[in-house]
Amino acid sequence: MERSLVLVKPDGVQRGLIGEVIARFERRGLRLVAAKFMQVSLELAKQHYAEHEGKPFYDGLIAYITSAPVMAMVWEGPNAVAAIRQTVGSTKPVESAPGTIRHDFALEVGRNLIHASDKPETGIREMGLWFKADELVEWKREVDRWVFEG
Ligand code: IDP
Ligand code: MG
Fold first, then answer.
1. Residue 57: CB within 6 Å of ligand 1?
2. N or C: which end of the chain has fewer CB within 10 A?
C-alpha cells in the first residue's frame, strides 16, 4: 500500500475547493490516513520545496504556499502515488488532461491548486515532514474488499 502527501494549496482553499478535491480521492477508492488544516511556516515551505531552490519560480512558490492556509492530507491505496498524480493532472494546468483537477479548476502553473507526491519515496519523505507518526490513522473500511483486490 502506497501513501502520498496531498496539499490543497492556498488558492484551492480560498476558492472553496477542499471538498471537491477530497470527494475525487474518496470516489477513486483511496483511503484517507491524515488531514490537517494549517498555515504553512516558512521553514516547512523551504523543506517541502527544497528540490526547487535556486529555480526562477522558487521565491514565488514559497510566497504562494505560505500566503494562506492549506489543507494537508495523506491518502493511501495500491499505486496511490501514480493514481493521485493522474487524478491531479500535469504541473501546467493547460497541459493537464480533461477531467483532472488541475484541468478542471486551474489555468496557471503558479496557481495549480494542489500538490501530490511524485514518487513513493517522496511520499514517505513528505509525510514525515508534514505529519507526526501519531497523526497517521491506521484503519479499515467495510468497503475495502470491494476496492482493493489483495
Ligand atoms: P508538481 O507540483 O506537479 O510536482 P513541480 O515541478 O514539483 O510540479 O513544481 C512544484 C510547484 O512549483 C508546482 O506545482 C507549481 O506550483 C510551481 N511551479 C513549477 N514550475 C513553475 C513555473 O514555471 N512557474 C511558476 N510556478 C511553478
Ligand atoms: Mg513536485
1. yes
2. C
Integer Cα distance of 4 and 92 in angstroms: 20
Task: Verify whether residue 115 is a known catalytic residue.
Answer: yes
Question: What's the maximum distance between 2 C-alpha atoms anywhere in the chain?
Answer: 47
Long-range contacts of 105-109 (CB under 8 A, 24+ apart): 105/12, 105/15, 105/17, 105/20, 106/11, 109/57
* Ligand sitting nearest the alpha carbon of 93: 1
- DSSP annotation of 142 reads T
Backbone angles phi, psi at 53, to 5 degrees: -55, 135
CATH superfamily of 2-37+72-137: Nucleoside diphosphate kinase-like domain (3.30.70.141)
Give residue-wise pLDDT tens across range 118-135: 999 999 999 999 999 999
Q: Where are the domains of the chain?
A: 2-37+72-137
- Cβ–ligand 1 distance for 37 under 6 Å, the answer no
